[in-house]
Amino acid sequence: PRLLVLPLGCFALLLPPPGAAEFSPSLDSDFTFTLPAGRKECFYQPMRKEASLELEYQVLDGAGLDVDFHLLSPKGETLVFDERKSDGVHTVETEDGDYMFCFDNTFSTISEKVIFFELILDNMGEDGQDQEDWKKYVTGTDLLDMKLEDILESINSVKARLSKSVQIQTLLRAFEARDRNIQESNFDRVNFWSMVNLGVMVVVSALQVYMLKSLFEDKRKSRT
Does the record's keyword annotation contain Transmembrane helix (predicted)? Predict the structure, then answer.
């Protein structure tokens, strides 16, 4: 399956334009991009009937850590709408066609957003093909203590658990990136206000010294 990236202004199209960027074939894809202020970016994902599309997104950086999210069916129907949220997880059962999802930052006029999202596609047909390939080599299994179907089931179980581990690690990296951005922002804010307080203290100290000094000055004019 391919994930096609479209620029702002292609929101109403149902087919991706030629030359658009795409992911390599994979059932699990993640992407991080910068969404400028006042912009909206849309992506397309071709899906098959009776498959499953799971999408998780997070705002890693930017003022407010929020964004609008839309998910539309191939018929143009709105399946999901999140208004100014920092993260979300959505799973839909799909039909044949291109699903479109958009990240909208038009409500912000100053701050850009760094957004991470991950796509997990299930029942896309590859597993069934793998099982058919295995069946070509199933001959004389009655003589074996463990049938090839049992081996295949064990391998698929290990594969599923490894895939889940990779997904969890990817999400943890996204959480770590967002926390690091927040900490760096707080660090810069603390340094700024510390310098402001230091400057105020220096000015107040100089003013106090001047006022104390003026109290002890002899302002009487000397007589000649």
Answer: yes
